[in-house]
Amino acid sequence: MPDQPIAGSRYSWSDPASRETLQLIAEGIARLSGFAVVTIGLVRSDDSLQVVAIAGSEEARRDLEDVLIPMADLRAELAEADDWGRLRFVPAERVAATRGAWGWVPELDRLDVEDAWDPHDYLAAPLHDAEGSLVGILSVDVPTDGRRPGEAQREVLNVHAEQAERAVVLALERERLAEQVRVSDAARRIVREASAQLSIERILQDSTAALVEGFRAAGMWLQTTGTPGEVASHVHTSSGEEVSVDPALAALVEQVAQDAWRRQDAVVVAPGHDLPVTPEQREMILDLLRDLDVGSVLFVPLGAGPECVGHLALTRLPGAPVWTAEEAAAALDIGHDLGRAILNARTFEREHHLVRELRALDDYKGRMISTVAHELKNPLASVRGHLDLLELADELSEESRGWLAALDRGAQRMGRVIDDLLLLARVGEAGHPLVARPVDLRQVVADAVDVVALTASRKGVLLHVDLPAHPVTALGDADEIDRVCVNLLSNAVKYTREGGSVTVDLALAGDQAVLTCSDQGIGISAGDQERIGTEFFRSTNPEAVAESGTGLGLAIVRRVIDRHHGHLEIESELGRGSTFRVRLPAA
Ligand code: ADP
């Protein structure tokens, strides 16, 4: 019987109630069985017996409480025992020499009778669970009548042993449930903390302590798989350092993780446990554990859906309890949650990378535009200077003057495009941050109205301007806001037919300064409105294309408003007119 397999370590005796129950049972047996000293010990998964209840002797309690007795010694002792049904009796003559190292011998005078109890006699009842696994040992000592028990007393002891067995099994079950709750609580905490993080390093930082503590591990490491076809050759340990691993071993471990994820299984790696690998591979893994001075590992695949993204390994020191089925199940749940968190972090990292690339591309485009515009500026100034000189010449025919005027118009237009390009690049450059100061928008709007007033009156477009009596102050760059006003107003005039009107209105609304520019012009179709403000975009409406323009004005408007943390709203209907509303943070 003592050679029965040993139940897993299921108890930590964190639950004082279980211990108390066993103590009460021991005391009851001490009162009723005719034996003054009674102990109950529990078999631990590290193959030792922990004495958790002692009744009848303070001295025995001092010597035995929580002492771990090697099961090997007990087995050797019980192998010598007489079989008394449930009970095992080893008379003093046969007690093993090693006994002295762990047993307790009462100070007792031996009676001078044939069946006298010897202080070295050992009487115990091995206790088993429903599956027949040895879970504890009840032992009795110091008979009140000073004799070895006869048939009747053995019967009584048998009944007590049965009762103790039930109590031990219940206590273990209770502890197992408490353990399950404790581990899954830890799991929930880990998930909550880790899933908020978007980098694998932070996920680890936040979950390591909870994982190690929750699983009573000595340490842990986590290895994420590289991109497909590439094997990650370093692991993150709980101490925060990254450790290099032999690539062959890393590949093997990754394979084990993939298989475990497919089977939805957490694997216990320890001497004496089966591993789904070849014997050589198993030796390689166990060698590693020995090198790291690790007794056992709970190996948990991490993943989401069909994808395995790495593994988590929780370690325990040699001699510590091996992992239970409940711990493995809770760890697999964590494997799901951590797997999802890692996938999220990876997606975030990829997006981040993409945004960085796009930004770099945008910067490059901005630099390119401003370089080209600068390079065009000087030759264009030279062209315009020479045109001015040519216009002064006397001997030019009317026809030639007409050609010169056309050249001059073209040069002016090129000048506008270059200025717009330079401004567009400037307001989009990271190296040219906004310098915001309070700006009274009434002045800016009045200046912009002055710029377009002549064109409007020449075209027969009526301008209504409604400026409040009090200042409307926005925080920003006066020149840039001026370009916004001029661009919106000149567009309104440009895209409004003769006889139409343009209204400019300025107001404060809460913490925003609101500039509204409405016209009764040609309007913009819903489709075009979606693309308006992207560089070089001009409406598909032929009436709009007939007007000269670069398609850069609104792009500048948008960028300026963006960097002022404002908003641009467009309401427009083809053929009926448009309203552009700019909201800027008020100073
Ligand atoms: P452009 O130099 O072509 O005017 P913008 O960027 O200022 O460039 O405007 C882009 C396009 O938006 C214009 O080509 C025009 O089709 C349309 N648009 C802008 N403002 C108005 C408006 N007030 N009414 C109708 N269409 C407009």
UniProtKB/TrEMBL annotation:
Source superkingdom: Bacteria
SMART domains from the UniProt entry: GAF, HATPase_c, HisKA
Subcellular location(s) per record: Cell membrane
UniProt GO molecular function: kinase activity
Enzyme Commission (EC) number: 2.7.13.3
Signal sequence, renumbered to the chain: none
Keyword field contains Transferase: yes
InterPro entries membership: GAF, GAF-like_dom_sf, HATPase_C_sf, HATPase_dom, His_kinase_dom, HisK_dim/P_dom, HisK_dim/P_sf, Sig_transdc_His_kin-like_C
Main localization (coarse): membrane
Pfam family, one: HisKA
Keywords: Kinase, Phosphoprotein, Transferase, Two-component regulatory system
Reaction(s) catalysed (UniProt annotation): ATP + protein L-histidine = ADP + protein N-phospho-L-histidine
Domain Histidine kinase as annotated: residue spans: 371-587
Annotated protein name in UniProt: histidine kinase
Organism of this sequence: Nocardioides zeicaulis
